[in-house]
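[audit] Reproducing an earlier prediction to check determinism. Same input, same settings, fresh worker. If the C-alpha cells differ from the archived copy the diff job will pick it up downstream; this log only records the rerun itself.
[audit] input (319 residues):
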Amino acid sequence: NHTFIEKNPFVSRYLRLSKSNLEYLFRQLGEKGTFTEMAKRSDVSVSTVIRYCSKLAIPKPVQLPTVLGIDEYKGNAEGQMYQVIITDLNNHSIVDILPKRDTRALIQYFKTFSKEAREQVKYIVMDMSPLFRLVMQTMFPHAHIVADRYHVCRLVDWGLERVRKREQKRLVAHSRTLKYNRRILMKNPGKLTESERIKLLEILRISDDLRRAYGLRLAFRKIFRIYSIPNIERYIQLWLNTVENSHLPEFSNFKTSFTSWFPQIVNAFVLPYSNGFTEGCNNNIKVLKRISYGLRHFDRFRVRILLLSRKNSTSYLNS
C-alpha cells in the first residue's frame, strides 16, 4: 500500500517533466514567443509554462556600469503604464527593469547600491526627461549626463513637421503637395534623387515659413561636423539666435529647452555615447508585448525581458 518513485537519470524526483524538456522550456523563455506557443512545443499546458516562469527569479545587480543608459517604455504591467529600463551601453546588455517610472521609486532603487558602486558610473545617457535628470543628478552628482542625440535632433524635426502641418492647412491649393511629400523634407539632401530635388524646390517655393524652418533644420545638422566643445557651444548659441530671429511659433520653445539642457546637449555631440542600444531593447520589448497580447504580471515580464538579453540568458542558464 505504498507508492514509490522510480529512480532514473532523466526525470527529477516528484516531477513528471524530463530534465531535457524542462531545459528546453527554460530556453524558450529567452526567446520571443507566447506562453501558448511554448506550451505546444513542449507538450505541456499553458499554466505549467506560467508556473515555471514564475519560479525564475533573477536578482538585482550588485554593480552598476560605467556608462549607464536609462529610458522608459510602455509596459502596462502591475497597474503602471510605464516601466524603466537600465542598460550597460559599453557591454550592450540590460542591467535591470524597474516596475514604475516614479521619482521616489527610482531614488529608493539606486539607494540600495553602495556609494562606491554609484561612483563607478561616469556617464549617464537619457532622453530629455526632467524626471530622469533630477534623479540622476541626485544619486550620481559626479557623473556626466548626456542627452541622447536622436532625441535632440528629433525635436528640431518635430518643429519642421509642425510648420509643414500649419502650412498644409493654410495653403489649400498646395495641401496635397505638402502632405504627400513630407518625407522629402526629412531626407538627407545629399541622398535626394533628381525628381525629389524638384519636388523639394517646389515645396520650399510655395511657403516662406517652411523654407525658413527647413533652413533651421539643415543648419542644426551641421553641428555633427564640429568637434571641439567651445565651437559646439558657440554654434548652438548662434543657432538659437537664428531661431529667435526666424519668428516661427513652432520653434519658440527651443530657447527655453536648449538653454535648460545646454550642458547635456553639448555632451551629446562631444561624447561618443548614445541610447541606440536602449532604444533597440525597447523595440524588442514592444515586439514581445505585442505577440503576447500584453504581459500584466511584472515579475514574469521582467524575467522574459532579462532573458532576451543574451548575456543574462547565457549566465542564468549555465548556472
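[audit] rerun output stored. Observation attached for the diff report: Residues 149-270 form one domain.
[audit] end
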